[in-house]
Design a protein that fits this description.
The chain is an all-alpha fold. It has helices at 29-39, 44-53, 66-75. Bound molecules: iron/sulfur cluster. Iron/sulfur cluster (SF4) binds next to helix 1 and helix 2.
Length: 86
């Protein structure tokens, strides 16, 4: 299980989660506002890695929209299930 102690330092802590789970198009004003807050968040990297590892299918995590995460996941090389002998 992931250590999620980073959440206590999140810039979004105490704010409405609706901002990070906006309805409608991915480039809405709400999305842009959430992404702007994420850019200054001290745990942005941990948040993005968490979302990519789950994966989280909805919302903005680490300043990444659902489409951003999908594109990153597709661009990452897949980890091999079994290591090949040296
Ligand atoms: S990067 Fe964004 S969504 Fe993640 S913890 Fe920080 S403010 Fe919240």
């Amino acid at each position: 299980m992931h250590n999620q102690g980073w959440r206590a330092r999140a810039a979004c802590a105490g704010r409405s989660p609706n901002l990070w789970f906006p309805e409608g198009a991915g480039n809405s004003a709400a999305t842009q506002e959430a992404v702007a807050i994420c850019r200054s968040c001290p745990v942005r990297t941990q948040c993005a890695e968490y979302a990519l590892a789950q994966p989280e299918n909805f919302g903005i995590w680490g300043g990444l929209t659902q489409d951003d995460r999908k594109n990153l996941t597709l661009a990452r090389p897949r980890r091999r299930l079994h290591a090949e002998p040296l």
